[in-house]
Amino acid sequence: MELRHLRYFVVVAETGGFTAAAKRLNTVQPSLSRQIRDLESYVGTSLFERSGRHIELTQAGRAFLDEARLTLAQADRAVERAREVARGQSGRLTLGFVFGVEAEQLMRVMNALHGELEHVELAMHSQSSPVLITQLKERQIDAAFIRPSRQAQGLSIQTLRSEKLIAALPANHPLAQESVIHLAQFVGEPFICVTREHAPVLYDAIHDYANRHGVALDAAYQSENLMMALSLINSVGGVCLLPEQSVRLFPQGIVALPLAEASPTIELALAWHPENRSAALTAFLAAFRERQHIGSTDGVFDMYR
To answer: Per-residue pLDDT averaged across 197-212, rounded?
Structure first.
């Protein structure tokens, strides 16, 4: 028994006769009659009662009709499902986010998935860039928003923006009244710094910057991620250097100030494994490129002073 037997049977049942069914199926009546006889032989019972040109479903035929329609619908759905996956309009997509960019980039991700890609199953998690890069290389995730470093060599990278570093400090700190911060003003202050293990790009940018200006920044506290750094600023009254986009996540009681010296920058990028042939990933990357808008960060200090 093949799907065509079920389709022929359903059309005959719906039209009430072989002549009308043959016309709808664009076939000849003798061939259609033979297909139905083959089906009845396979099932082992009559599905139609024949009386001249008039036919009616038997009790077994009525039961078979319900199941045949269900089977055909499921087969059609299976075909469409396979086509959706092949087009990248279905399937599963696993994305990683470096700590601190989730809120902003998730909105762009959802915009990219809107419409034709809305049936893609999305899994997400946040991690440090080194962990995300390892997961990309091991094909544990499909794509990730990372701070690109030498470790990312071998991955496909789309740079999204460069971010200046800014000074973050408590709103009640004496330096909070300044219009800009000179790096030397951090000397003697409880400095909060990310660990190189968890944020090597930011760590190196901060220390290279300090070395160029002859300032020794000894970390009184170390932080594994942005939220921990913000918590330390509030709880111990420390100062910190952070990417400017992180200002959007500052809780009440923390202010951002620009640096007087030319600020170092770090990049945010979307990365994926070049040999990942996932149709969902390919479709997502195309939609994300089409819809992304890298906005200016001008005015963020005014927003959070």
So the answer is: 95
pLDDT for res 302: 36
Q: Is there a single domain that holds both residue 136 and residue 284?
A: yes
Q: Is residue 304 part of a domain?
A: no
Would the pLDDT of 108 be above 90? Answer: no
Give the number of domains in the chain: 3
- The tokens for 9 are 């049977």
Rounded CA-CA distance 188/185 in Å is 8
pLDDT of residue 299: 37
Owning domain of residue 200: 163-266
| Residue 298 covered by a domain | no
